Amino acid sequence: MESTAIKDQKVHKTESMKKVKGSEAVLLSLIEEGVELMFGYPGGNIMPIYDSLYDHQKKIRHILTRHEQGAAHAAQGYARTTGKVGVCMATSGPGATNLITGIADAMLDSTPMVCITGQVGSLLLGTDAFQETDVIGITMPVTKWNYQVTKASDIPGAIAKAFYIARTGRPGPVLIDITKDAQFAEMEFSYKKCEGIRSYVPVPKIDLEKIEEAANLINKAEKPLALIGQGVVLGGAEKEVTTFLEKAGIPFAWTLLGLSALPTDHPLNIGMLGMHGNYGPNKLTNECDVLIGIGMRFDDRVTGDVKRYAKQAKVIHMEIDPAEIDKNVKSSVAILGDVKETLPQLTERVKANLHHDWIQEFKKCSDIEYEKVIKKDMYPEKAGLSMGEVIRRINENAKGEAILVTDVGQHQMVAARYTKFNHTRSVVTSGGLGTMGFGLPAAIGAKLGCPDKQVVTIIGDGGFQMTIQELGTIFQTNVAVKIVLLNNDFLGMVRQWQQLFFDKRYSSTELINPDFLTIAKGYSIEGQRVSKREELDEAVKKMLDHDGPYLLEVKVEKEGNVFPMVPAGCSVAEVRLE
Amino acid sequence: MEQEYTITAFSENSIGLLNRITIIFTRRHLNIESLTVSQSSLPGIHKFTIVIITTQEKIEKVVKQIEKLVEVLKAFFHTNDEIIRQEIALYKVPTDALLKTNEIENIVRTHGARILEVTPDYTVIEKTGYKHETQELFELLDRVSGTLQFTRSGIVAITKNKFELLTQYLKEMEKLNYSTN
Questions:
Q1: Is A348 a catalytic residue?
Q2: Model-level pTM?
Q3: Would you put residue A569 in left (φ > 0), alpha (ψ -120 to 50) or beta?
């Protein structure tokens, strides 16, 4: 069969064409795509590309991680904070399979990423050769697109197509698998960026009638509620959404991945959605009359029991991916397209409004939540330190200017609930896949992508140990990430579920932990352990002021729980405060 | 309510696409009743015809997932009354049975089947029709003479629309000036 990677594009041959090795063509192609930074790990079948990389170190900086999973997550952290395509590289077989968790994570969280893997020589394909894995087959369900290159001449076309697919429409991870003989073979290099693929429509056409219909619903609404997702950030539509919400006077809640799309203290912000989101947005979802999903996908962690989700409301769904329409929640009006383009059209057609009384209802919920949950989290009176007060201290010192990277679990939910943000793209967290071990390597990518920003990663003692080897990357590359380890010597979220739903049968959730500061010290990373409230503020200050990477371990309450909570299978209206 | 649906999907001719499409069904625990892949009437474009038994809601979602694949140009689904569909079946019977009486010859005639090849040992009969028709003939032949071999294809289908649904789409894409080969 023909190779579609090149057949779909016009490749204009230029006079400056030169003969190069396939491996060199990979590097030249990456340079053409503007890649300045990539993450990876070498091995047998990608050695020619690493050899060519040696000549281009001034243009492309390669960060050697300690594990391929770390390379994938670092590329994600880089992509999420910079908006550029993250790039990572691994060898065939185990190198490639180690990338899978990161690729699956990027797929669920729509992160633009290009992964390049080496492969055995094309004559060895299918022979169970040393370090051969069918990486195309394995990654098919977790990539937006993947392609195996067996001829050097296909390399520029495949890479151009990979970057185009990864960043356009709803972004996602793309994998290019290159056989070793294609890396060695010579080819005539010329590069043309991909501008379109016949069978691929990244952004659907806008239907103005739908926008008209949506505006009518919004103009008649007395209790409208907007849900802001990562689509707003990916589309760069922060201003457009702000203008829309402010004109129509619509309160908004954000999803976990929609965090920081607007400043936290925006007066229309009513908090976070989801299983551990805020009380008001969960409860009042089942009281609003018009629900507007903007660049979000009604994930089951957002909807709770979908059969009892917003049944009273007309649902307007603004979304770039047609497959998301009516997938989880049936919409009354679906507005397909990039929200950056559809929102201004909608804003033009909606009437200025205030919805004062409706917004007051959220305020009431917020007061209840403050009394029952937030006060105890942020200003606890009990002896043990709470995760919430650690976040409060970080807020007080970082003042909303830091990028938050989290791992997965209780600390993630607490950090997402309480961290203040002033700027968009200030959150990197594993939403869809819920990947423990994501935080530390993602923070490396975030810091290298935004060197002038403070990057604080909040990690639990469980997730920290899943990718703890990346302390080696931080050490070797001197990445100044600030690691806040919220240590409760438990797999906290699982333990919480065991307490609430499994009769306190703590099956395999207690952790006997090592001395984390000693481990950090082994990598020359400075740190401090805090277990007393009076030491906390000073310790946070010291961490933020420290020049270079830093580990702040906080011994928190062992059996603290995260509330509010919409227990699995319950309706959002059944959100529990204790 | 579950019923039979026929999906037609048009795609570029690329390695692994069949796999990309079938994992969409596998992941949702949907069984494929029949699957045919072949070149379409449009040069360079392949056509998948897939029959599954499921609900309207599920088929809508599955078709969107198929269309989301980068190499798929367009995917549609149809109920049985929206398409003309046929499958082909081949039967191998002992030639003795054909020569002994004219019963087999009569069956071939009345079922609109035809004889493709006769050798001293066996005779190959072909019939095109709905599945229940090819099945009926199989059971009849098996009873009368015994069948040495029997095989049937997946279905091929054509819509009751006057033109191919894809043609309009391709014209629109051409306006966007994407290279087609």
A1: no
A2: 0.95
A3: left
